[in-house]
């Protein structure tokens, strides 16, 4: 039986499927009987579930962040769907397809990687070209790079989101370079492609997305610089000026001190990178906020922190 | 004899040409004889000039902002060129080619207008299309629009600069719309083309660029809205929703309250317009600051206020 | 039987009256029986109410924002009044006196309008006088103007609040003009009277107060300017300077960019308008926060966001 | 011969009068002869003056901030008046009428003091009334209070300026209290009258205005509080609550931390005081900037720091 | 039986002890029987408690902030300890040891006072020495000073916290003065010791910590200045310069206007005091946030407002 | 003849010595004869100098930033010393003692290095100890480290200033660690000693102090991290956690984003380092501003940007 995804469940439907446990609470009825209040998730969303008469050994048989198989029925309660659970059994992590449970890009990852490699091939500066090759011929890097999310929230917060975002900015940068001939195309494109690689170290994305210790201690800008430094050290004669200018693109791409850049953009390419990155992230986030806002009674989304206002949906 | 431009003068050269008087001071030598200290300009730059033994009637024969014909010799004084003037005669404004004296775009204005009209033709929404036609079939508007500068300083501060900037953003917006299909292309392009039209009323650009009274009292965002309002009133059935959304693009395109927008961008198109406009203006300004910085002994420009830092020239 | 208002209900009292439904939740007892949890309101306040044993058809017989007639008893539960409801029946909107349900000014609206008209009569500038007449002889405008609230919260957030606020500032401005002879009295008074007219379009105030689409897209400053522009177009020879200066008063009256003004006050009258408006709104809001704070055990109100502190009540 | 004031001098006029020396420089002609370059002032303004052939003993016979009598002729040089001095002789401070040299209010000081005392008499609270009497029956205080400027620049920066400003705000506060009956009139008026008394200690205004050491170390808000504390200690039974509330008005009247108030206004009276004070100071400063801007070729003043913009003069 | 402290309770344990009532709610079971939901506290922490079948007279026999003796059993419910209460009896305030219920320093108060007095003895300036003696020989002051908390939250928020903080900064200041000979040691130490004395008036700390009316109206900086002023008035010949400089240290020690200082530090000693005070408070607060964060599954604390980030615990 | 330093010159004195040319201008007398206007410097200060009758070949015989030997006389002109130059001859850089011309620490560099090495020896953590050894046993590093200034202005802006600042903070940190036992002493001291090493790459200090390209592109925080990374890579088993925590100290020591830190301090040691560094730099800068302010007629320095106010000198 193919997995039924949470986003497609309907009231009355019988469920017999595996879910990720996002939250688990043991509560007590007025009659002092324990019951389980769960939040279950898969990659398409999450849902409340309730198991009455939950014996202690059942309650203790699994924990938050584990996978469980349940049998139950979907009910509507106070305008919201929830599952009344009849049976629960733990499921080992090895037996699940992780990609069913963590949100991931809807695009074709290998097609995106191919397109990005095509763009990389157009770079003619020998040192920048070698530097990019050093990354994109390393299998372990490619795997992580094509799997990582771009953020823990706001924009491209799903597996493959980093690649999707980088490719999107890279396409814009190609068009942009054609229209602005004074821009150093090779430098800008290298900056675009590498500007967020520190995120592969900054973000942890097993089951849920959060920051690593390194991420919180030094931030992805500095991690990215260190990753580039390591590769560049191994390229004979990599000009130190070029390396510093590339570091500058990475370090300044947040644009302002208060957004975590230790330097402000000081070259046309750094200025362009900051704005192209911002343009893609902001338009993506706005579109997402509008699409995901389900209340059809209003022409406006709720307040969106990133934009410091509500967005117009019409 | 063809006009000799200031940027091409060399020490020792004899000058017999017309210039705009930017500054005029009557000074006195220790021996109590009056002399004239002038700053002369044409579209390529400005230069100090001095006329010794300046009789009062000569001093009073012209004023600041007038045109004069001079005969004199170019000298080098303390590393700077200046003109030692022998003769001065006033020149009527009708006798000069204004474009010789006010900086203007180096691009072909009618080619730019054609390209912009081509872009306008691709707009399929009937109301937006009619609105743009209402502007771009009005000869007086077209003349002002294709002559105005985009700013008094910083970016595109020369005749035709507004058109150059609008076309540049419009090209970017065309590429951008192709890459981001969720964007309402017609609305974005209309916003791009009209977002700065208030500047045709805000800026005065006879000889030197400054703000009009209207510009300083209400600002070009509101002037733009009023200009659109007037045209839209005459288009039968122009949907009020569409008009408000277009107003929103105009009013919010500075992006933040502190930059003079009374509302923050609240639609994907408004967000995109703000960033595309910013991207073009910032990259243009950075390139200009680098190109115009002549001190070859440093890899860095002077401090540039817009970027809150010095820019790297290599 | 005259309506009993919520603010006057006492424990033990029998209620048989019409209320506005602010919130409606269908909940379930442990025994799986549905019950209704309501929040009922009239112009004097709101109250929780509970209907046990609520059959589905009853639950579906009305919705949020509707009017219902209830029979029930007022009880005290955990120090708070609530109504135990026995019977519910929907009431058509046509059958209710809307003013019983939406908070409105306690002052006499027609007396306030008269006083304002008296002030308008003292304006001697022929154009400003005609402009004000154009508004205040239009019945539909007067109706909306005298009904609108001044805000959705904080100050004068009730029907007639806009008129009350405008009159209050106008009185202050009359006194102020007498004390400061260098002020252009006619201009200041016109600015005071018209500065918030955009709110008649920005705010929707059927049953509850919220912002219209236009309000959120362009803001009331720009709506006000457009309304004045329309009227002024029809007045022969209205001087464009005067119009721009009046626009400036409207646009700058919030005083700072971050409060939504696209220009900062740049004339003595604009500066005075900003401060007079602020003075009235702030003193009103502080008095209201103090009056409405019911906890007598403290000399201080809760934290009031507008003042970024708690207020002293003694 | 009555004193000729600087503001009335005309080119060609013979001068024989006493002036205050604002600046004194000994320079040298190309022929190595010393000459004196002076800036002379009286209460109506200041002017450059030059004395050729200035023997060293003459140069040393007076210093900056001294008074000198000169004989000379007024000349126009490069569009500006200056004095060609022929004779100089020092004048003892005792021999001058100080009020001829320091700018002072054009209003009648004793009439202003009378009006203020009339307002004080209307205060009915016995403690506040006694407190004000303690100040206004003390001759030395009254003298300083009626002589002090309100600031070193910006607003009311002249002898008697403090009194003029206080009276102006007090009149506004009287009107305001009549219109807003919820305001504690006695408290507000006492706050208005005493809010700036610390300036009598903060500012030094012998010849030129500057801050005292105390002013720069603690500020006039704290000085004012200490002055009130001293007086209140001597009033039997002055309620400590009332004293704290009055301190609060003094300390919070700048309105914001960044303007030097250690607390933000937290009572309706404190809020009103802040806004009334601000209203008077801002309208005064704007009017002054417009009146004093002499360049008739522009409708705008220069940039005015206090308003962060240029002001419109029409 | 010695008091059992909340921090040491374990599930299953029988409790028969006195606690402070932090919160008290009367709720109702589905069967309409009232029960009590309490939050009980002593100096080591707080805990939920529940009393079923709570007769109205029992519910009314005590109030929030009172002391009660309970008998009951500790249970674990949903991973949290709570007390199931069987019996409740009110306890008069006179019968409790207040220090059992309000958190207080773990250090030896009289040892700290001794050490501080030793430091005071090293001050050689006769006026500063007399001033400190005036405070520290006054029994009532010493009692309050050694009992007061340093803040209501964040740092040293417990009885004796003020003394602990002052001593800690004083020790640092002694070391610092030894290393920086240009610092006026006596002045700095006096500033350190007196900089927070206004807190003895600003904070109320009976049972729970909150701000007094005086504290909220004028703040502890001004209270401190007034306290010093009173003492200094009684010391013959106290130099007014020295007093102003000392006031300056007190008033400026928050360092910035937005942190409530009406003046910014303007002497080396004021600058040092601000930084030493800050250093002690920040390091203390960080250590406390780390120590008190009990969730061992993360290397990071929760977000800490004071540091605008999470802290690393390893 | 021993060098006469600028700070010791007196009017009338004959000078025959070598100076650094800070500024060089060729001007013209009224009689069209060129003369030289120079600014000459040594490590103790700078002075104007003038050479009349300067033949073109003399003017061209040296340039700005060169060394010249002059013969001349010190004169007083308009209260300021200047040199009337009679003879000029260029001096090769090899022939001068650079330390005579660039300001440098007055302390004993090798004594400071010894003391710092003593402190390093007290570090017991084997990895941090090895890391510090890797730096301080490298001769080239030690030479640069002990020569570099700490800044281009404000604090410790002279040769050896970096070492002096580091030692000063290190001493403070030793005292501090003794008083705060919860601090990880080894980590804090290592952070203190290495926090500014990036400045050895960021600052260029041949003759005058300015930022290098690397300094302006990436900043000294990132340079420091890269320098540590290089050394740590060569230490077997250096724990990556420890390295990240140390990076965190370096990166966060400016304390706030707007001061260029890409992360805010998130450990007690990082918080302490930020405040200790700040304390030393601020107290040093204040003392210097007071010492160097020579105008004895005022108790206050001029406005000091770092402190946003004037400082009190008494």
From TrEMBL, chains A, B, C, D, E, F:
Alphabetized Gene3D superfamilies for the sequence: Hypothetical protein af1432 (1.10.3210.10), Nucleic acid-binding proteins (2.40.50.140)
Domain of life of the native organism: Bacteria
Organism: Candidatus Brocadia fulgida
Record's protein name: Phosphohydrolase
Residues in HD domain copies: 162-282
GO biological processes: rRNA 3'-end processing
Keywords noted in UniProt: Hydrolase
Keyword Hydrolase: yes
Record-level Gene Ontology MF annotations: hydrolase activity; nucleic acid binding
Pfam families: HD (PF01966), tRNA_anti-codon (PF01336)
PROSITE patterns, alphabetized: HD
CDD domains: HDc, YhaM_OBF_like
């Amino acid at each position: 039986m193919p997995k039924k995804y949470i986003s497609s469940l309907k009231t009355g439907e019988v469920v017999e499927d595996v879910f990720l446990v996002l939250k688990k609470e043991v509560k007590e009825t007025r009659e002092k009987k324990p019951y389980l209040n769960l939040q279950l998730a898969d990659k398409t969303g999450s849902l409340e579930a309730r198991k009455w008469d939950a014996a202690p050994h059942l309650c203790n048989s699994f924990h938050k962040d584990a996978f469980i198989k349940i049998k139950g029925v979907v009910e509507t309660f106070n305008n919201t769907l929830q599952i009344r659970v009849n049976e629960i059994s733990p499921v080992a992590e090895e037996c699940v397809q992780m990609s069913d449970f963590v949100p991931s890009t809807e695009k074709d990852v290998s097609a995106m990687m191919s397109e990005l490699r095509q763009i990389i091939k157009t770079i003619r500066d020998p040192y920048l070209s070698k530097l990019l090759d050093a990354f994109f011929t390393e299998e372990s890097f490619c795997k992580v790079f094509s799997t990582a999310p771009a953020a823990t929230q706001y924009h491209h917060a799903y597996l493959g989101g980093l690649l999707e975002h980088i490719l999107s900015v890279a396409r814009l940068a190609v068009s942009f370079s054609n229209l602005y001939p004074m821009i150093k195309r090779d430098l800008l494109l290298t900056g675009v492609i590498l500007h967020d690689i520190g995120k592969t170290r900054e973000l942890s994305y097993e089951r849920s997305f959060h920051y690593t210790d390194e991420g919180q201690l030094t931030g992805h800008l500095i991690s990215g610089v260190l990753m580039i430094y390591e590769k560049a050290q191994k390229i004979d004669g990599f000009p130190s000026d070029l390396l510093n200018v590339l570091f500058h693109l990475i370090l300044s791409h947040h644009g302002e001190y208060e957004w975590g850049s230790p330097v402000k953009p000081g070259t046309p390419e750094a200025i362009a990178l900051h704005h192209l990155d911002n343009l893609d992230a902001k338009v993506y986030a706005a579109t997402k906020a509008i699409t995901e806002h389900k209340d059809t009674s209003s022409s406006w989304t709720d307040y969106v922190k990133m934009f410091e206002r509500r967005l117009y949906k019409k």
